């Protein structure tokens, strides 16, 4: 089963979702009212609309700025759509928010948000928790003060969800990840623009994800595929990252102290850590000062964990057919331990693709790196104090089909 089968699966899944939403909307057509006007608006108007929403209801906001001092929330009502007049026309401003940890918090199935902006949330801009069939389209998220540690961690943040579509959005200034999908399954993240975040796009502890057609630039790291311990859902797998533009991700890391993404050095293109069945192909990964791509185990962090069900090793990873060009002359990010290590090991000439080389005691890992013209591959041998560091590409001259379950 290759990519074509996977794509058909996603199309079938989202087609069924959209049909279900359409049916729910039609059955509640009497609940579809005219747009809420920004003129004379008070936040209680939208709060009341969300509290009293019925299944399938479409809540529409007109052009203008809508200001809020507290979080908006929707709980348990299926098929609700929150729609604006455009990401530059309908503005939900949380500047000065004094109540709530998110801008918009959703705990409901078949939720859609589209065609609006969420600015200056006190925490995460849009968080969707434990929902089925989540759609986020043409949404803009930003913090008006620019990138800083006090900004919300995540721009778009589905967690614990099944069936996620994020497309045609723009996210900037998040202190963790612009677009983060965690502990979820059946995911499509496509045609988005993410910039000036710590991580542009992060897929974490998730299953069956496609990340394609996105533009990731001016972040600290472009695209991260992580798996972490001590979480209810772990050992993610089957993630495809393809046909993305990933370039100039050299922005200084501004994550708050202690965040996992705080380890990422500025100048990171793609980083795969401790997950399985990941296929990275047909991307343009260019102009990164630290490294273009890396495959590492969780153990490289030297952080202890106590989760007996967690597998810290990456396996069945494929990097193929990518156009990769490293930034010449700048040198790795010396503010992060990994950047300092790379500068020490390679004296300013870091290879484009890195593998930490840490091996489990009971099996061999499959990591295949082929047909990325002009790239060098460094095996760090991090588990042996870098004693066996080498640039031999032969261990990675293999093929694997991570798209197949």
Count of discrete structural domains: 2
Q: Low-confidence stretches at least 5 residues in length (pLDDT < 50)?
A: 1-30
Overall spatial form: elongated
In what range is the share of β-strand residues? 35-45%
Mean pLDDT: 91
Q: Give the number of DSSP strands.
A: 30
Major beta sheet, specifics?
19 strands, parallel
Give a quick summary of the entry.
This protein is mainly beta. It has three helices and 30 strands. The chain has helices spanning 3-27, 43-51, 337-346; strands spanning 58-60, 64-67, 70-75, 81-83, 90-93, 99-107, 112-119, 124-129, 132-142, 154-159, 162-167, 170-172, 177-182, 185-190, 193-195, 199-204, 207-212, 215-217, 221-226, 237-242, 245-247, 268-273, 276-281, 284-286, 291-296, 315-320, 323-325, 353-355, 367-370, 377-379.
Topology:
Blueprint (H helix, E strand, L loop, with lengths): L2 H25 L15 H9 L6 E3 L3 E4 L2 E6 L5 E3 L6 E4 L5 E9 L4 E8 L4 E6 L2 E11 L11 E6 L2 E6 L2 E3 L4 E6 L2 E6 L2 E3 L3 E6 L2 E6 L2 E3 L3 E6 L10 E6 L2 E3 L20 E6 L2 E6 L2 E3 L4 E6 L18 E6 L2 E3 L11 H10 L6 E3 L11 E4 L6 E3 L26
Parallel strand pairs: 1-4, 2-5, 3-6, 4-7, 5-7, 6-8, 7-9, 8-10, 9-11, 9-12, 10-13, 11-14, 12-15, 13-16, 14-17, 15-18, 16-19, 17-20, 18-21, 19-22, 20-23, 21-24, 22-25, 23-26, 24-27, 25-28, 26-29, 28-30
Structure overview:
With 405 residues, the protein is mostly beta strands. The chain has 2 domains: 1-108, no CATH class; 143-396. The chain has helices at residues 3-27, 43-51, 337-346; strands at residues 58-60, 64-67, 70-75, 81-83, 90-93, 99-107, 112-119, 124-129, 132-142, 154-159, 162-167, 170-172, 177-182, 185-190, 193-195, 199-204, 207-212, 215-217, 221-226, 237-242, 245-247, 268-273, 276-281, 284-286, 291-296, 315-320, 323-325, 353-355, 367-370, 377-379. The strands form 2 sheets. The protein has a 19-stranded parallel β-sheet that branches. The chain has an 11-stranded parallel β-sheet with strand order 3-6-8-10-13-16-19-22-25-28-30. The longest helix has 25 residues, at 3-27. The radius of gyration is 21 Å and the shape is elongated. Mean pLDDT is 91; it is low at 1-30.
